[in-house]
Amino acid sequence: MEENSCLRQAKCRAKGGAAGFKVAILGAAGGIGQPLAMLMKINPLVSVLHLYDVVNTPGVTADISHMDTGAVVRGFLGQPQLENALTGMDLVIIPAGVPRKPGMTRDDLFNINAGIVRTLCEGIAKCCPNATVNLISNPVNSTVPIAAEVFKKAGTYDPKKLLGVTMLDVVRANTFVAEVLGLDPRDVDVPVVGGHAGVTILPLLSQVKPPCSFTQEETEYLTNRIQNGGTEVVEAKAGAGSATLSMAYAAVKFADACLRGLRGDAGVVECAFVASQVTELPFFASKVRLGRQGAEEIFQLGPLNEYESGLFCLLHLCFQDWLGESEERVSWKHSKGHLLQQEMKRCQEKFHRLSFFSLESPSPVISKP
Ligand SMILES: NC(=O)c1ccc[n+]([C@@H]2O[C@H](COP(=O)([O-])OP(=O)(O)OC[C@H]3O[C@@H](n4cnc5c(N)ncnc54)[C@H](O)[C@@H]3O)[C@@H](O)[C@H]2O)c1
Ligand SMILES: O=C(O)C[C@H](O)C(=O)O
Signal peptide location in the record (predicted)? Predict the structure, then answer.
């Protein structure tokens, strides 16, 4: 009798009783997915947690579901279960896809990950078109525009709800800057704008909080290290993948901010890679205010110093190839190309002594989905 009652309670609970948001992780059995799932299970804002992958979700789900926190966990395995995984979700976090190995750029992941992201976003468009999407899969500079195209085609595109996750760049910047300043990283806030590859990652060291100043040597060291944090981890892991634990931490920090925004909290501001009119580029990472509708406000970059202006100019050029061979790209190139070539020359002259040009190629290629 008692056993039946326990079973009944468990079944009832498994329907998801606690107040909170419904969150799905796609790619939940992977290097990022597993610690991310664990940390989201701890998050008090989550009432239901759906774990989807093409492999190993039964084991990961069984494991995580034993944690005595509020969220109810359910596992979904393979394409036939994708729709059930997505139905009713408020937030979908996507770390599905292959990671880099040493010697690769994020662009090298494009062919495989573009297809994965496209399929998953088709599912989102069908089953939870109003969900906020946190896209982690690389190359973020290209997977976010691909997701936008999928949603546009499905008629569900809301640019405020599609957010490329660049939080790891901010987390790294806070850590490295705190090291140089001798501060606790939790007291440091570094805006990182642009994109998520090599020189498209632009830390705004002139806007660090608390206000501080750096020597030119410190500025170059920090910029270089922040832009290459991903490669530092890829090389240290020596073929066993890229950042997973720090990424899971960053993803949860960002997802938590999105959920607090959805709850209606005021003043939730984080950096994210979003459709943007802050620059001439159609997608750009900058500070956004997160609210019930997603990225409700996108902040201007604020004043850049001379060094940052040079890097911004370089970043702008690197994004040229990324716009895709669409009509939009062709006309954009025609209108801006000449000017940008001149800028590039100026930037190269100015920065030729720095190591930026030998770094990871930041020119992701977008092909039409
Ligand atoms: N945005 C960032 O800052 C950032 C940081 C680190 C890694 N990444 C990227 O995140 C991605 C995942 O990295 P990882 O280390 O977790 O890789 P991983 O290989 O450990 O895990 C990826 C998971 O995705 C799953 N997967 C593959 N195809 C799928 C599909 N069609 N549907 C659902 N799941 C699928 C795999 O089965 C695997 O479990 C990579 O593209 C990596 O480059 C981004
Ligand atoms: O560097 C990578 O390939 C993974 C990720 O984008 C990172 O910045 O760590």
Answer: none
Catalytic residue among 50, 196, 334, 338: 196
Q: Which atom of ligand 2 is nearest to the CA of 139?
A: 6
Please say if 196 is a catalytic residue: yes
- Specify the domain boundaries for CATH 3.90.110.10 within the chain: 167-369
What distance in angstroms lies between residue 349's CA and the mean position of ligand 1's atoms? 38
The H or E element containing residue 328 is helix 327-351
The amino acid sitting at 362 is P
- Residue ranges of the chain that CATH labels 3.40.50.720: 21-164
Say how far apart CA 271 and CA 369 lie, in whole Å: 26
Q: Is 104 in the pocket of ligand 1 (CB under 6 A)?
A: no
Question: Tokens 């408020």 — which residue?
Answer: 90
pLDDT reported for residue 351 = 43
Per-residue model confidence as pLDDT tens digits over 282-327: 899 999 999 999 999 999 999 999 899 988 888 877 776 555 444 4
Mean pLDDT of 11-38: 83
CATH for 167-369 is 3.90.110.10
Interface pTM, i.e. ipTM: 0.99
Position 343 pLDDT exceeds 80:
no
Average pLDDT for 126-137: 98
For the entire predicted model, the pTM comes to 0.88
Asked if residue 283 lies in contact with residue 164, where contact means CB atoms within 8 angstroms, the answer is yes
Output the CATH code of domain 21-164: 3.40.50.720
Indicate whether residue 364 lines ligand 1 (CB < 6 A).
no
**Which of 215, 218, 243, 219 lies closest to 229, judged by CA?**
243
